[in-house]
Amino acid sequence: MSSTSHQERTAAEQREANLHQVKLSQINQVNDTIRLLRLSIPPAKQVEACIRQAGGFTITSTPLDATYRSHEPGYLELAIQKSPNNPPAAWLWRPEKEILGSDILIRVGGSFVWPPPRVDPASIKRLVFVAGGVGVNPLMSILSHLHKTTNQLPEHLEFLYTTHLPPSGNLHTILFVDRIHKLFQQNLNHHNHKKFKLFLTQASRDEEPPSLSWPASTEGSRQTFR
Fold this sequence. Notes:
Number of helices: 5
Oligomer: single chain
Order of helices and strands: HEEEHHEEHEHEE
Shape: globular
Structural class: alpha/beta
Largest sheet: 4 strands, antiparallel
Radius of gyration: 19 Å
Strand content: 25-35%
């Protein structure tokens, strides 16, 4: 593991100067090591908590989710991996009753965005996402955005996702696997050239990994390797 801090690794990345106030309004436990957090964007008021160290968490929601709609506040979604040695992550993994409803401050930054700088989305004919583990986070945001703005969908869309076989054997506890499949199976059903592949690492070639209970008509597939 690298000893370089998050601040050092991302020193050249763009960051907004302003801090934004959000409320930790929802916590969903995906599995033993991942939490999904919803940060609602409320009217300004006194901040109850301020984590004064960059955590480097990736937004998994879309820009549309952050806007007010029908008198409902916008929100940001984060997927937080359990990391006791990372102070911001450790705080966000405190018992739910201790932190739910807290007002916190965040700063937005980064250069991994869609569409790519100086690229017209209409010119993209083939799009391949490659994700490993929690590296799926920014791609989940982009895929969801493409679903909500179908005019930006390329002719060919492929999503390759590799991760560890969960200790429980329950593949539905894999971060975002059901959400991705739902987008491909239902919401992107009009798309003629699409493919979702899930690759699982496992301890032994002799083990037969469990199957997902997806409909038989799915365009996705599952492969395993050591």
